[in-house]
Amino acid sequence: MRSPSFPSWGPPPPPPLQLLLLLLPWPVWTQAPAAAASWGTPGALGCPEACVCAPGGQANCSGRALPAVPGGLNRRVRVLLLNHNRVHALPPGAFVDAGALLRLDLRENGLRWVHARAFWGLGALEQLDLSANQLEGLLPGTFAPLRALRALSLAENRLARLEPAALGALPLLRALSLQDNDLPALPSGLLAGLPALNTLRLRGNPWTCGCALRPLCAWLRGHPRHAPEAETLLCVSPGRLTLSPLTAFPDAAFSHCARPLAAQDLAVVYALGPVSFLASLAACLALGSAFTACGARHRRRRRRAAARRQQRRQPDPGPGTASPAATAAQA
Ligand SMILES: *[C@@H]1O[C@H](CO)[C@@H](O)[C@H](O)[C@H]1NC(C)=O
C-alpha cells in the first residue's frame, strides 16, 4: 500500500522496511538505497534538489532563493514551480533533462536573459509562465521547440520591442499575455504563426497611434472576440490621438502609411542593393583617380610656370646669352 506522504513512481518498499525508514531521521533515510524511487521529501532521489515533490510529478521549488535552475531534473517532473527565486538567466538546454514537463512557472525571478536554446527538449510543455521578470527582448527561435505550448505569459516584463519572429510558430498556443510591458506596437507577422490564439492580453502597454500600430489594429479588427479588453486599449501618444481606442482605427486611417513592400519591390531592392554598391564603388574609384590626375597635372603646370618665371627673372646682361625676347626689347 502506498503512503500518501511518500508517493512513488517505482515499486514501493516492502512495509517492514518502509516502517523502519519512517522511524529513522531523514538524512539517513535519504542515504538508504531503498529510497531511490521515493518522491516526496527534499533530497530524495528522483526529486530535484532543493525542491519538495508531490504526487502527479509536481516539483515545488518556489521561493527558495535559487540562483539557477536546480539540478536533478528528470522525466518524472511534470510540473516545475520555480517561481519567486533568483534565476536571472536561462542557459542553453536549461531543462533538457525534464523532457516530460507540462508546466513551467518562472514568475518573479528577476530573469533578464533567456538563451535562444534555453527551452530545448520541452516538446511536451503546455504552460510557460515568464511573467513578472525583467526581460527586455526575446531572441527569435526561443519558443520554437515548444510545439505543444498552449499558454504563454510574458506579462509584467520590460519588453519594448519584439522582432516579427520573436514568437515563431506555435500551432497550439491559445492564450498569450503581453500585458504590462513597454510595447508601443506589435510588428507585422508576430501573431501570424499562432493560428489557435483565442485570448490575447495587451493591457498596460504604451501603444503609440502611428503607422507601426497598423498590424495590431488589423489583427484586432479580424479577431474581435480574441482580445478580451480590446475596447479598453488606448493610445498614449502622439498628443492629438492620445486616449483613442485602438479599435477605433479603420484601415483607412493608415492610408497615408507606406504599404509593406510587395515581393516585386523586394526583388528590385535586393537587386539594386549590390548593383548600387558596386556602382558607387566604381564612381568613388573614378573620382579618386580623376582627382589624383588633376592634382598631378596642376602641380606639373605650377612647376613649369615657376621654372619659366625663374628663367625670366634671371638677370643675364651678357649679350651672348640674352634671350631673344630681351634682345627684341632692347632693340
Ligand atoms: C510550494 O511551496 C511553497 C513554499 O515552500 C508554498 O508556499 C506553496 O504553496 C507551494 N505551492 C504548491 C502549489 O504546492
From TrEMBL:
Low complexity: bias regions: 319-331
Swiss-Prot/TrEMBL keywords: Cell membrane, Disulfide bond, Ion channel, Ion transport, Leucine-rich repeat, Membrane, Repeat, Signal, Transmembrane, Transmembrane helix, Transport
A molecular-function term among this protein's GO annotations: potassium channel activator activity
Positions of the UniProt region annotated as Disordered: 301-331
Compartments where found: Cell membrane
Quaternary data: Interacts with KCNMA1.
Residues of the signal peptide: 1-30
InterPro entries assigned: Cys-rich_flank_reg_C, KCNMA1_auxiliary, Leu-rich_rpt, Leu-rich_rpt_typical-subtyp, LRR_dom_sf
Annotated PANTHER family: GH08155P (PTHR46473), LEUCINE-RICH REPEAT-CONTAINING PROTEIN 26 (PTHR46473:SF2)
Name by which UniProt lists this protein: Uncharacterized protein
Any single GO CC term annotated in Swiss-Prot or TrEMBL for this entry: voltage-gated potassium channel complex
Annotated transmembrane regions: 267-294
Domain of life: Eukaryota
Organism annotation: Ovis aries (Sheep)
Keyword Transmembrane helix: yes
Membrane topology: Single-pass membrane protein
Compositionally biased intervals (Basic residues): 301-312
